[in-house]
Please model this.
Amino acid sequence: MDYFPLFIDLKKQPCLVIGAGEVATRKIELLATAGASISVIAPVICKKIQELADKNSHITLLQKEFSPEDIDRQRLIISATNNKVVNKLVAQTAKQHNIPVNVVDSPELCSFIVPAIIDRSPIVAAVSSGGASPVLARLLRSKLESLIPPAFGRMAQLANKYRATVKEQINPPAQRRIFWENILQGSIAELFYSGKEEEAESRLQQAISNKTTSNTQGEVYLVGAGPGDPDLLTFRSLRLMQQADVVVYDRLVSKEILALVRRDSELIYVGKQRDNHSLPQESINALLARLAKSGKRVVRLKGGDPFIFGRGAEEIETLVQENINFQVVPGITAASGCATYAGIPLTHRDHAQSCTFVTGHLKDNSVNLNWEQLAAPNQTIVIYMGLVGLKTICESLIQHGAPTDLPIALIQQGTTHTQRVITATLSSIYQKIEHENIQPPTLFIIGTVVSLHNNLKWFKPE
Ligand SMILES: C[S@@+](CC[C@H](N)C(=O)[O-])C[C@H]1O[C@@H](n2cnc3c(N)ncnc32)[C@H](O)[C@@H]1O
Model:
């Protein structure tokens, strides 16, 4: 190890920054978050630093050249000038007086390194490449940032509040460690991260008085898996997928997304069966309730967004009736994902004042929409599940006044590497796709925004 990592308490400690440009600004802001008492020395001071000093009485500006006596009694020094002679002088003087010094972008002059920081105070993680590649350290930091929920720090404060009580009540230490592991990676922490902090605290209190975290009832996470590209999952959905005991998924969830669930979790498919019938909705609702009641943490993974043509509400209505804990995680709906990946901005202001999502498939297999409203100009219509009813949809729109040459796009398997976009007009689309071997799922976008596709398309599937 070239550098020994440690965390220093800098509250009210005198720290010196030499330089007062953009880089120095970032260092001053960082030292200020640690509560340091900061002196800044530079012949010219930028406006931003001036403003910081106006707002923070712990920042003192000294408009002058650096001289060696300035380092007197400093706890830590950062040189952020672009003057090599000054930087060298600062480093030499600091080293002579045994004061830790960092010279920005000159690892050979540094006695300490400022790491890339993930701040979820009181939890702080620091990443360093020992000066070899600060960019690599920052990339690692952004990966960690995405894994650590924003409320992680507040969760640590809650744990701290009950630390002594748990120490008193739960023994021996090995059992206490298991207790905390279950709390901090279990349903209580998830409840906390989803914003139900009071409920999480009362369940923690209950677990402490029962001296156990074993909860006889599990819970259900209704998670939107997005339109197909795994990169479009949210941080929260990925975290929940990696904690699930069971994942109940349907047809629209891609293999690549399923590959991201916890390796040992049980996968239950409830999409189309071999006889072409999906598991009836009531059976899915009952299955989720049964699994949760047996103590499992269940992820119900649905394509797109669970609340957009996803029957998510029906599933959680059953959970509400059965008093089972659940949370819903939004996903990117197909309209948004497909339109974006096809280079079709749904509400470009030169073309559309509104955008309507409709389903082209009704319960009794009919297509019964408000055609008059949908045929009006200056709008975009997105049709989910519209392939079977396409002919009826186009004819009905034309009958109600939509122009025959109104552009329409069919997007097949949007956002995936098999995405296809076919554009035509209301009067020509049906014939154009008749011999095209279209594969599900497909989505239609109708409106003059479709004409932008040629110019704005950017996603090129392999
Ligand atoms: C039952 S709906 C579910 C919609 C989903 N909840 C959502 O928010 O995207 C299924 C329909 O969504 C559309 N769809 C979903 N993913 C798609 C994709 N990757 N490409 C094209 N259409 C898609 C298709 O019209 C498909 O028939």
User: Anything to note?
Assistant: The chain has 18 helices and 17 strands. The chain has a mean pLDDT of 93.
